[in-house]
């Protein structure tokens, strides 16, 4: 059930009726017609822009269309009133019977309430986290992992065919640094004293890796030159770090469908194939770029390079793909990787990067546009920094990592559910404050607690009713028609009606934080109704009369269905009692 879609269908049917009467001309495009909550709830339950968007093509005044449309809509039992406002806005109020029918419909739909077929099986690849395999993931990776995982769940809920993917950055020089750092731990495992050069990875997390290397090869490499052990240690260390990363992701509730190795692109012809594809389209050339802004002739030297003509696909400047020494730039393997994704048949690509990748957005979108001939859209979401606090002070260091707070630190301190919900309370491109004390605080200022408390309260009243011998199973409640008369009851029902619409909006914009915001609003309405019942016993969910209890508790149970569905998308387990 989608009440907003149902009322929009009613509006479209009314437009058709007006066309049949020749009040409106035939051939009008009704695709832009919407029904949505009004900006000011005092104006009604829903508003439609129909008169405003049809006025110009119909060559009529918006208000004339609105008045004719209002008359048609008032004839439907679901509409209590249809009022024209301003130049042609149309505000609708739904009948109490319409609101009363909603909770039972939600229970009958169960976990399918709010699910959408909007995606129609569109194949989507979401790449997220993709941390260098050089150590444990830090709190910034945690936010990217949570946003990506929730986005994947959201799109799947909206009918998309989603693949969660991790790109292993194991093709660069940083993995050689990792191998050398593991070798130092290997030497320490043999009780040798070592000096840590600048730029190495001295975190304690490599101690067991050095021990494991010792167990595997003994002292065979202790006096061996680097060229003998570097390649094997590099593979050994990368595998160990990926095991660590998988464990950290699992602790956060994140599991990938596919891991793709950057290293697999080198020496296999895959980069060359991707660049040739662009070359065949006339998009690769030799040229000299203009100096970067702010550079002077003294600190910039023009040189001929192999360039990708990315400006033909929306970029600001063309981009180098090969260095003057003939080696590939960092951009070239990224082109090849995205070419691989396009070749795998995905209809849409989503990349979730750290905020420091802002300069990569236009060039990557240009590459995908060129490789797919504009068929495959690429959306790139940038994740801003997380600022950590404890006891009101910045919280910075992890003993395990040596220099930063790890993802596992966060999970161990507050739990995966709290971390996931709080990381989704802001848009990903906005900085986020994460206070270890406040995110576990039991107050309405803490959205994690507030939403979980709403679900736990509902579970509590269900248990109380059941203990009193009242049948409050879903099968029984689904046949109940509640009496919703108080504005707080109707406000809660109206908020539940927004869920299917919210899912589609959040999926379309790739913004899972909208779900967290919505759940906070649902919780506020539930708590508001609960508190109102403290003064007005007629509004309490559990009454002396079993039939009255079933009538009241149905709305609460429908609320729990929606909260559970929303938390499921966020990857958060709903609690049934607060401890």
Q: What's the shape?
A: globular
Proportion of strand residues: 5-15%
Average pLDDT value?
A: 94
Proportion of helical residues:
40-55%
Largest sheet: 5 strands, parallel
Number of strands: 15
Question: Which strand order spans the largest sheet, edge to edge or round the barrel?
Answer: 7-6-5-11-12
Cα-based radius of gyration, to the nearest Å? 29 Å
Structural class: alpha/beta
> What is the overall number of helices?
19
Distance between the termini: 35 Å
Enumerate the spans where pLDDT stays under 50 for 5 or more consecutive residues.
none
Write the layout of secondary structure elements.
Elements: H1 3-20, E1 35-36, E2 46-48, H2 50-58, H3 62-74, E3 79-85, E4 89-94, H4 96-109, E5 123-127, H5 139-157, E6 161-168, H6 173-189, H7 207-217, H8 226-251, E7 258-261, H9 270-280, E8 284-287, E9 305-308, E10 319-322, H10 331-343, E11 348-354, H11 361-371, E12 378-383, E13 386-390, E14 393-394, H12 407-414, H13 416-423, E15 432-435, H14 447-467, H15 474-477, H16 487-497, H17 499-509, H18 513-535, H19 546-570
Helix pairs in contact: 1-3, 2-3, 4-16, 4-19, 5-12, 5-17, 6-7, 6-8, 9-10, 10-11, 12-13, 14-18, 14-19, 16-18, 16-19, 17-18, 18-19
Describe this structure in words.
It is a single chain. The chain has helices at 3-20, 50-58, 62-74, 96-109, 139-157, 173-189, 207-217, 226-251, 270-280, 331-343, 361-371, 407-414, 416-423, 447-467, 474-477, 487-497, 499-509, 513-535, 546-570, and strands at residues 35-36, 46-48, 79-85, 89-94, 123-127, 161-168, 258-261, 284-287, 305-308, 319-322, 348-354, 378-383, 386-390, 393-394, 432-435. The two termini are 35 Å apart. Helices cover 47% and strands 12% of the residues. Strand 13 and strand 14 (393-394) form a beta hairpin. It is globular, with a radius of gyration of 29 Å.
């Amino acid at each position: 059930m989608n009440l907003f879609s149902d009322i929009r269908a009613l509006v479209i049917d009314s437009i058709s009726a007006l066309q049949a009467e020749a009040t409106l001309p035939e051939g009008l495009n009704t695709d832009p017609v919407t029904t949505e909550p009004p900006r000011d709830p005092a104006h009604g339950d829903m508003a439609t822009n129909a008169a405003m968007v049809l006025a110009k093509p119909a060559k009529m005044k918006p208000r004339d269309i609105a008045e004719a449309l209002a008359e048609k809509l008032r004839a439907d039992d679901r509409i209590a009133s249809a009022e024209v406002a301003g130049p042609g806005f149309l505000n609708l109020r739904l009948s109490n019977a319409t609101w009363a029918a909603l909770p039972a419909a939600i229970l009958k739909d169960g976990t399918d309430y709010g699910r959408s077929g909007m995606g129609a099986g569109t194949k989507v690849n979401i790449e997220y986290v993709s941390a260098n395999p050089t150590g444990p993931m830090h709190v910034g990776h945690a936010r990217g992992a949570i946003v990506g995982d929730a986005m994947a769940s959201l799109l799947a809920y909206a009918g998309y065919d989603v693949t969660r993917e991790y790109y292993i950055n194991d093709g660069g020089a940083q993995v050689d640094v990792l191998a050398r750092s593991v070798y130092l731990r290997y030497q320490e495992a043999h009780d040798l004293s070592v000096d840590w050069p600048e730029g190495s990875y001295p975190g304690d997390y490599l101690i067991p890796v050095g021990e494991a290397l010792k167990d595997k090869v003994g002292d065979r490499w202790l006096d061996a030159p680097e060229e003998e052990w570097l390649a094997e240690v590099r593979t050994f260390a990368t595998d160990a770090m990926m095991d660590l990363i998988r464990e950290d992701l699992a602790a956060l509730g994140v599991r990938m469908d596919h891991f793709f190795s950057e290293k697999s692109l080198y020496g296999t012809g895959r980069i060359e194939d991707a660049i040739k594809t662009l070359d065949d389209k006339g998009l690769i050339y030799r040229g000299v770029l203009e100096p970067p802004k702010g550079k002077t002739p003294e600190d910039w030297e023009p040189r001929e390079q192999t360039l990708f003509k990315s400006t033909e696909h929306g970029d600001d400047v063309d981009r180098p793909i090969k260095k003057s020494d003939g080696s590939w730039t960092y951009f070239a393997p990224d082109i090849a990787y995205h070419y691989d994704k396009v070749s795998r048949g995905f209809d849409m690509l989503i990349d979730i990067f750290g905020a420091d990748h802002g300069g990569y957005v236009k060039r990557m979108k240009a590459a995908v546009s060129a490789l797919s001939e504009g068929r495959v859209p690429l959306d790139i979401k940038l994740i801003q920094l997380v600022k950590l606090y404890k006891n009101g002070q910045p919280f910075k260091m992890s003993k395990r990592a040596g220099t930063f707070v790890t993802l596992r630190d966060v999970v161990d301190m507050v739990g995966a559910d709290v971390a996931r919900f709080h990381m989704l309370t802001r848009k990903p491109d906005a900085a986020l404050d994460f206070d270890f004390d406040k995110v576990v605080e039991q107050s309405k200022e803490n959205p994690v607690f507030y939403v979980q408390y709403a679900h736990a309260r509902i579970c509590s009243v269900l248990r109380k009713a059941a203990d009193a011998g009242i049948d409050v199973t879903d099968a029984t409640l689904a046949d109940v028609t509640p009496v919703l008369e108080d504005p707080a009851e109707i406000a809660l029902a109206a908020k539940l009606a927004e869920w299917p619409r919210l899912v589609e909006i959040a999926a379309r914009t790739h913004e899972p934080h909208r779900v967290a915001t919505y759940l906070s609003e649902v919780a506020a309405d539930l708590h508001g109704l609960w508190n109102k019942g403290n003064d007005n016993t007629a509004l309490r969910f559990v009454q002396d009369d079993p039939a009255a209890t079933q009538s009241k508790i149905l709305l609460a149970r429908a609320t729990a269905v929606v909260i559970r569905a929303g938390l499921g998308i966020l990857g958060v387990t709903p609690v049934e009692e607060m401890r």
